[in-house]
Amino acid sequence: MKDRLYLYDTTLRDGAQTNGVDFTLSDKLAIAHMLAEIGIDYIEGGYPGANPLDTELFAQAHSIGATFTAFGMTRRPGRSAANDPGMAMLLDAHADAICFVAKTWDYHVRVALETTPEENLASIRDSVAAAKARDREVLVDCEHFFDGFKANPDFALACAETAWREGARWVVLCDTNGGTLPHEVERIVGEVVKRVPGAHVGIHAHNDTEQAVANSLAAVRAGARQIQGTLNGLGERCGNANLMSLIPTLKLKPAYADHLEIGVDDAALGRLTRVSRRLDEMLNRAPNRHAPYVGASAFVTKAGIHASAILKDPATYEHVAPEAVGNRRDLLVSDQGGRSNVLAELARIGLTVDKNDPRIGTLLDVVKERQAIGYAYESAPASFELLARRVFGTVPDYVEVLKFDVNVEHRINALNKRVTATVAVVKVQVGDGEPLISAAEGIGPVHALDLALRKDLGKYQEYIQGLELTDYRVRILDGGTGAVTRVLIESQDETGASWTTVGVSPNIIDASFQALMDSIVYKLVRSGAPA
């Protein structure tokens, strides 16, 4: 029979300490429900009394579908549990469980709390007892436990054992400054489980040495049966243990999956990538493309020899199936790739081509030539698709741009304020009709050009009504006055689909124009616009 391993999420508290992250009340509730839906056992909502938002969150009950937990300090030294305002806030909070943070390093007891080891142990006992008396499940986070153990193992162990014997469901060992290494964690947790049963021991790891996931797994190997972490590894400084890496490892790697089970089922596992990216969307952050399991590049390869192997047997170069975590495989077309990459990408975009078609070699040569001058098709798959379709003759000549002009003027406006105005004029030919001329004013050259291009495309106008530019990135490829500029443009349409296009030129406006035109043509192709 497999041991049950419990997952405890601290995104709503530890994650809120990340630089640039600010949750609203509705954000916290939405994230809590999202966590419960994938099978997280405990969700730490925050610290009632520490700030108005968390106080409001715990002012009323919430039906989350997981053990909703309030976090706070044990009673203060020299006070009783009944005469401590912080304890009162915790005990009155609408929460299923209470997680107390307690000092377990004797140095902190002396210097930070200015009290005695005996009073610290009494504070742990009294706090656990008070919460148990209110019918709450109790957890005790043993702050700086590993540093405390190294300095005074007897005292650190006494703190952990006191919490457990008083009735705490979980005694959580915290690597608070993130400086402990996996071999140390495994050894120290091994000592703890001799005094506190492993079924009551948890691990809370920070990522300051990039070891938080490894330390969490080391603790599990030593017998701990709860892991605390956050979505996408959010947290103060370098972050916390990343549940988006831990969950698939626990589910898919035999070293853990053969003898442990978690509350995340296979269907929920398949939603991990979506959950990870949904959180980033809520926080208006760019997802980490290189994140294990859920990153956009996690199952991407550029090398042709690897692509050949992946096409024959994906397991050769993929440690897990990308679909298992809701991700996808990509074989990028680049100057590092070969015919296998091209064939795989053609199949993905729906172009059926005989593997001996000589145009495959032509396409590969064109890709390599263009990438040599700065194009990056691995970052702009929509532009690659258009290039491929043009080589194979499947892109209609929708629109011909006869000329465009962009004018930037610095002047004094009617309010006597100095402003910069940008106007773009575009002349296009659509079919056999008369040329169409459009002008638009924008907040910058690219904005003005984008508006003018999409202002009037004649019979194709209806197909691009929902098109909008959502991101614009520029990279200077060569220094000096003759620098080559690469522009990547991300676009989105009314269906929610998004794509990226690329343009390269010594002139940033020309590079932007190329990417903008590719975006428009790609939208017409997607929409099935007739020639």
The level-1 CATH class of the largest domain: Alpha Beta
Name the assembly state: single chain
Strand % is 15-25%
Distance between the termini: 64 Å
Work out the helix count.
Answer: 19
CATH topology of the largest domain: TIM Barrel
Structural class call reads alpha/beta
Helical content, roughly? 25-40%
Query: In the CATH hierarchy, what is the superfamily of the largest domain?
Result: Aldolase class I
Number of domains: 3
Given as residue ranges, the uncertain stretches (5+ residues, pLDDT < 50) are none
Average of per-residue pLDDT values: 91
Query: Main β-sheet: number of strands, strand sense, barrel status?
Result: 8 strands, parallel, barrel
Strand order of the largest sheet: 2-3-4-5-6-7-8-9
Q: How many DSSP-defined strands?
A: 18
| Spatial extent as radius of gyration | 29 Å
Q: What overall form do the CA principal axes indicate?
A: elongated
The second-level CATH architecture of the largest domain is Alpha-Beta Barrel
Catalytic activity: pyruvate + acetyl-CoA + H2O = (3R)-citramalate + CoA + H(+)
Family: Belongs to the alpha-IPM synthase/homocitrate synthase family.
Keywords: Amino-acid biosynthesis, Branched-chain amino acid biosynthesis, Isoleucine biosynthesis, Transferase
GO biological process, one term: L-leucine biosynthetic process
